[in-house]
Amino acid sequence: MQSAADKTRAWIGGVAGAFAAYVLLVRPRLVGWGATSEERTAALPGDEFLPSADIQATRAITIGARAEEVWPWIAQMGQGRSGLYSYDRLENLLGCEMHSADRIIDHWQVVTPGDAFKLHPEYALHVASVDSGRALVVRGGIPLSEGSPPPFDFSWGFVLRPQPDGATRLIVRERYRHKRRWARLVTEPTQAVSFFMTEKMLRGIRDRAEARLSS
Description:
By secondary structure, this protein is of the alpha+beta class. It folds into two domains: 32 residues; 181 residues, START domain (Alpha-D-Glucose-1,6-Bisphosphate, Chain A, domain 4), CATH 3.30.530.20. 37% of the residues lie in helices and 24% in strands. It has five helices and six strands; from the N terminus they run ααβααβββββα. It has a six-stranded antiparallel sheet with strand order 1-6-5-4-3-2. A hairpin with a 3-residue loop joins β3 and β4. α3 packs across α5.
């Protein structure tokens, strides 16, 4: 009969094995979906804001449209604007009040450093840099409870790379820098959620940009 100590060791071994499998097999796909090896390691606009990031995720997609035709969809992103082109219903279960637009809105095209980039009516990141037609970077942190400081700093970059055939690579990079020792307990699980939402967002931007050309 297996002793309590043996059961504990078996449980710890199982957890360690599952974590190792996640790190080796699952995590690389979550943090690098759609991106080439060059894109995952390249220096991108926004990296300079968190030069010593603890976690980095780089995801990408090819869009059959020129960069200047993709940019308007990125410029108008944010809660209270055109949304994030992801799973509105899931976001709205958390009170985000997201409504992803299916058209370009002229009065949302102006975006400047310092502007709020809302994720929720009560929580916002801020625009850190804008290179119109090429890159938008937002930055900030979200507290886990009212009155508490965010446990990590965060930058989120949207980078457009024109391709020789007239298409565009849209690269989205997330960088996290921990402010608390326990912050990794939050940021690591966040990667699974981020992958799920970002994949939908990238496809949403692609589909909107390509549909507008064909209409």
